[in-house]
Amino acid sequence: MTNEARRAERAARSGVTAGRPLWRQRDFGFFWLAQTLSVLGDSFSLIALPLLVLKATGSVARMGLLTAVGGVAMVLAAVFAGVVVDRVDRRRLLIGCDLVRMVLYGLVPLVWLAGPHLWLLYVVLPLCEAVGMLFAVGYVTVVRGLVDVTRLTEANGRVNATAAAAGVLGPLGAGLVAAWAGPADAVAVDAASYAVSAALLLFVRVRERTGDDRPAERKGVWRDLRTGVGYLVRHPVLRSVTGLLAVFSFLSLGINDLLIYHLKHDLGRDDGTVGTVMAIGAVGTIAGALLVARLRRRLGFGPTWIGATALCGLAFAGLGWVRTVPAVALLSAVYLACVGMAGTCSMSLRQEITPEPLLGRVTAAHWTLQYSLAPAGAAVLTWAAERYGTAPVAAVAGACCTLIAVAGLGTPIRHAAPRKQLS
């Protein structure tokens, strides 16, 4: 039996079909809903945690420090995440990650009942970011086990679109809850969302890895790590994308803190306005997620990725200069739409061209390298904004992001259809 026939047989047993609409595929549907609800809760913490720090200290640099600490934990976890994902049951791993984050985030509102304790945030956020990295790598491999390979971009786009829709309601709700009851209560909503997500994942059946898809013989953690990095480095497109995204992440990881500080400090707006602007920005993510599959089919991977990255930089550059809330919200929507399109293209490409036994390790290697410099970048960006103002810092960082897209024109990324296998 050929490899194609074996894959078709396994897909049939797991209910994965190329022709059936994604919304009619039971397992993908449950997974889709779980992800949407999880992101709904995440969007509460995305606003609530920086607001807790800003309310207690009034410092954007302290906000950036919290982001940087979380980023360091994420990078460290990414080093080993791929090895773990490629060795364990993926569905159980995702459920466990949800339950751990439920407990950790649930501690914040409980402790805050006795008053602000910023030290707790510097413990909880890094742990949650590390667990979240395990979940994120597992997510990439699970999607490939739920849908046909020809529909990966569509599936990723659909998940990102509905997650972004939840991201519209989340910031609005978080802003209202933070303004009415305080940011700590908004974190409690995030904790509850993880409980619901874990319950839904119990109903998901992921295609078992058999035959060609089974992990190769285990030869030690460090050997496995080198295998993932080696595949990534040898592939010309994946290598180029990872290198450019490492610089992009250095420049942009702190943008959320910068945006909140601009609205609160420069424009004098309240928590409700912050939530509204973030929600409008999430509308851009919806648009990008719904458009990415169509654009990639029409233009190809390279033009879509490069064009989206260029627009990200232009929107970023203007964020600090605009002085009205509608303008800030519009640029935020453009930025998030383009980040979503570029990110979906990048993830789908890795899923398509990486052998499944290596997918977890290659994904982890990609994210380790991509975010290795990002925590330092977040600390530098927010420190510079507090010292020199948000406008010049955003302009410089955005211009550099646009140059990253220009640099992509000189790499194999520019090709519309990268080769699927290494020679």
Q: Provide mean pLDDT, rounded.
A: 80
Instruction: Please count the beta strands (DSSP E, at least 2 residues each).
Output: 0
Percentage of β-strand residues: under 5%
CATH architecture: Up-down Bundle
Shape: globular
Largest sheet, in brief, is:
none
Q: How would you classify the helix and strand content by structural class?
A: mainly alpha
Helix content: over 70%
Please work out how many helical segments DSSP would assign: 16
Into how many domains do the coordinates divide? 1
Regions with little confidence, pLDDT below 50 for 5+ residues:
1-17, 210-217
**CATH superfamily membership, which one?**
MFS general substrate transporter like domains
CATH fold field value? Growth Hormone, Chain: A
The rounded Rg comes to 21 Å
Distance between the termini: 24 Å
Secondary-structure element series: HHHHHHHHHHHHHHHH
User: Tell me, what is the CATH class?
Assistant: Mainly Alpha
